[in-house]
Design a protein that fits this description.
The structure is a homodimer. By secondary structure, chain A is α/β, with parallel strands linked by helices. Chain A has two domains: about 5-140, Rossmann fold, CATH 3.40.50; about 150-205, Arc Repressor Mutant, subunit A. The first copy, chain A, contains ten helices and six strands; from the N terminus they run E-H-E-H-E-H-E-H-E-H-E-H-H-H-H-H. In chain A, helix 3 links the parallel strand 3 and strand 4. In chain A, helix 3 (about 65-75) packs parallel to helix 4. The interface between A and B is large, with 38 and 38 residues. The structure holds a DNA duplex.
DNA sequence: CTCGTCCTCAGGGTTTCCCCCGATGTAAGA
DNA sequence: TCTTACATCGGGGGAAACCCTGAGGACGAG
């Protein structure tokens, strides 16, 4: 039986190297490629046969979501499992939309990851329990939900998170204070939060704002 | 020559296991103990001889700073190197205060960590470049800076970050709204921020609040 | 005992947030 | 063409945040 050929894309060197060693210890697994650079991974696609790609999401430069989209347009049979520090909204919906077959948290243990790889390799899916619960909550809680923010709203949310007042934002964007407040309100609705504190947590978790 | 005996304390299983494998590959290093639980580590101190402890800071329950304090009160000769995802303020000062001899970011590579371990084991220090730069900036920029928060303030800041209003906090803590506002103001002063947005970013970076 | 720190509380003020309502113009799509 | 989504702007009002000042009690260190 052929080993499952795995690639690891993660910018944290220690984590990536360690993960490689851990996976190579597992019977039937073989890490055939690992890199911290998503672009390099795209270039290597034709040179190394890969079954499963373990893809970090938060990376400088090109992020895991974009890489996944590009990879799957080139190699539709390759299976991508997303890795992330956070279990929260936005991330995984975007990753699923990009075509990822699984989603595992970095705080998972070896056995969960092994399970995920085997499930996905056999044509299934794997989403860690945290994710499933959040998704279920999303549906039952039918907040208007994960409406994407408009580009203007994304511009505003970044400034809000930086602590600028509506006044300051209006000056920065050359629009009226009232317009800023409208955007704020719409963002609050979409995020399902009720004040700045909640918004910031939401923005960070959904990668609209980075610390 | 005796191997350097290393313990790894980190709640992220994959990272910890991987790190253990990586370090065991290094000539002269041996990971003799690893755990996700700080309390368990404290109990094990007498049973396993340890030279170096690699200590994660962000952990549920007891954090790396408290563990470090307790460990060093029991075993002053043990050398603690802090591991952290973030390079930002507060963390490392608290860790240094607790007695850590080094500070390495999780995004470091194997060679940097190896260097850090050797330096600390020989009685030196090791602080990653990011940290040193921030410290230098701190001094030149002499913000009144890292006044520690009082315990009450830490309690308040967590609730503020959860999006509670002063009214709600006062009910939760059984104190007056005015008292809450006083604490808020004092926190704002110490943090050097001017509104909730800034405060939340500061609190996250300084680990007074976790996402 | 004094000093400093911390926690507590208050008055009174300005600013900002947050929410209600409504409105116009524009551009993309059915 | 009609609809929908988006961005823009406004009035008004209550709630909360924010800023300043002052002050009393507790408690530990020197």
């Amino acid at each position: 039986m052929m080993d499952i050929q795995i690639a690891v894309i993660d910018d944290h060197d220690l984590f990536r190297e360690g993960l490689t060693l851990v996976l190579n210890q597992v019977q039937g697994f073989q890490v055939v490629y690992d890199t911290s650079d998503g672009f390099r991974f795209l270039e290597m696609l034709d040179q190394v046969p890969i079954d499963i790609a373990l893809m970090d999401i938060e990376m400088p430069g090109i992020n895991g979501i974009e890489i996944t989209e590009k990879v799957l347009s080139l190699k539709p049979d390759l299976k991508v499992i997303a890795l992330s520090m956070f279990s929260d909204t936005g991330h995984y919906t975007q990753m699923i939309h990009a075509g990822a077959k699984g989603f595992v948290l970095k705080k998972a243990n070896k056995f969960e990851l092994e399970q995920a790889i085997r499930a996905v390799h056999q044509g299934g899916n794997y989403f860690s329990q945290d994710i499933l619960q959040k998704m279920a909550f999303r549906y039952t809680n039918h907040t208007v939900g994960c409406d994407q923010l408009t580009s203007r709203e994304i511009g505003v949310i970044a400034l809000v998170c930086q602590g600028l007042t509506s006044q300051e934002i209006s000056e920065r964007l050359y629009i009226s204070v009232k317009t800023v407040e409208t955007h704020r309100s719409n963002i609050f609705l979409k995020a399902g939060v009720k004040n700045i504190a909640g918004l910031i947590m939401w923005a960070i978790k959904n990668q609209y704002y980075n610390i």
